[in-house]
Specification:
Elements lengths: L1 E5 L9 H16 L4 E5 L5 H13 L4 E5 L6 H8 L4 E4 L10 E4 L1 H14 L5 E5 L5 H16 L9 E3 L4 H12 L7 E4 L2 H13 L9 E6 L12 E4 L2 H17 L7 E4 L2 E3 L9 H14 L1
Parallel strand pairs: 1-2, 1-3, 3-4, 4-5, 5-11, 6-7, 6-8, 8-9, 9-10
Antiparallel strand pairs: 10-12
């Protein structure tokens, strides 16, 4: 039996990312003749902590899949201290001493910023995820390092925070477009917020991919069916779910193979939501930069 406790919030379980991951874990578990026990609790809540304690002490499952790792994660500490088998999809601030599979956010953001710069964009904004989540920190770092590598300034007000939900992406897009010099391209820390950003752009009468470019991260299925399609950094979420499950079963059967670290570079999928910088934007931005100098 394999356990997976989803970090659902009070509004329910809404992120397509989790659905695709869960399907992958379930498929691989069935292939390996394991059963899957799934629960959902708000991240960091007393109910979540209590469930992990019960899982470890009660022998409900033989191992646990961890997802949506936090920079300081009590789940990792608990499972490591008790020697309980687990594999993480993601990392903590201290990623030593336990097996994980993760995407290389820094490398991925490098690919995406390269793409936007090649299209002529210089004033690029970033909508970050919650700081307590490790992947959100890595994606913000990747954005900053990539902008610096291209010699591009990160202007005040062009990094805003979101909560990974679609409405949050729309709100972030609204704040950015109401600024004195709006960005010509916006990168979102996940696809769901990017879809919200596209909603807001459309509500303002902007043509995504022409008037403003928008990109996300994760490669959820919904991004391929928007108009225009969403440019994103694709993780093979379902396949990663299968791989995490397979690694956990191997760990349960052979603890000598436990400490393995795997980083996967996401694939850049270019779709219609990103396009060349319109000439009028380039002339206006250059004029303002000259005035500031």
């Amino acid at each position: 039996m394999i356990g997976l406790i989803l970090p659902a919030d009070q509004t329910g379980f809404e992120e397509p990312f989790f659905t695709e991951f869960l399907v992958g874990v379930g498929e691989e578990a069935a292939t390996l003749d394991f059963h899957l026990l799934v629960a959902a609790h708000p991240a960091g809540s007393a109910a979540e902590s209590d469930t992990y304690l019960k899982v470890v002490k009660g022998g409900w499952v033989d191992g646990v899949v961890l997802i949506r790792l936090r920079w300081q994660d009590e789940r990792v500490r608990l499972l490591k201290d008790r020697g309980f088998p687990f594999v993480a999809y993601g990392r903590t601030g201290d990623d030593d001493g336990y097996p994980f599979i993760d995407e290389d956010s820094v490398a991925g953001l490098g690919l995406l910023i390269d793409h936007l710069v090649q299209l002529g964009h210089r004033r690029i904004a970033f909508v970050a995820g919650p700081d307590e989540l490790t992947f959100a920190r890595h994606r913000l770092r990747g954005f900053g390092e990539s902008m610096t590598r291209h010699g591009l300034p990160i202007h005040d007000g062009l990094i805003v925070m979101g909560d990974l939900q679609r409405d949050s992406g729309a709100e972030a897009m609204s704040r950015l477009m109401d600024g004195s010099l709006p960005p010509t391209a916006v990168v979102f820390s996940n696809d769901l917020m990017a879809l919200g950003g596209m909603d807001e752009a459309g509500a303002r009468g902007l043509k995504v991919g022409q008037d403003v470019s928008i990109a996300g991260f994760d490669g959820i299925t919904a991004g391929a069916h928007t108009t225009p399609g969403l440019t994103t950094l694709r993780q093979p979420i379902r396949e990663v779910g299968r791989r995490v499950c397979r690694t956990l079963v191997e760990l349960i059967d052979d603890k000598a193979r436990a400490n393995r670290h795997v980083l996967l570079v996401p694939e850049l999928l270019v779709r219609g939501s990103t396009g060349a910088l319109p000439a009028r934007h380039g002339h206006r931005a250059q004029a303002i930069e000259r005035r500031r100098e």
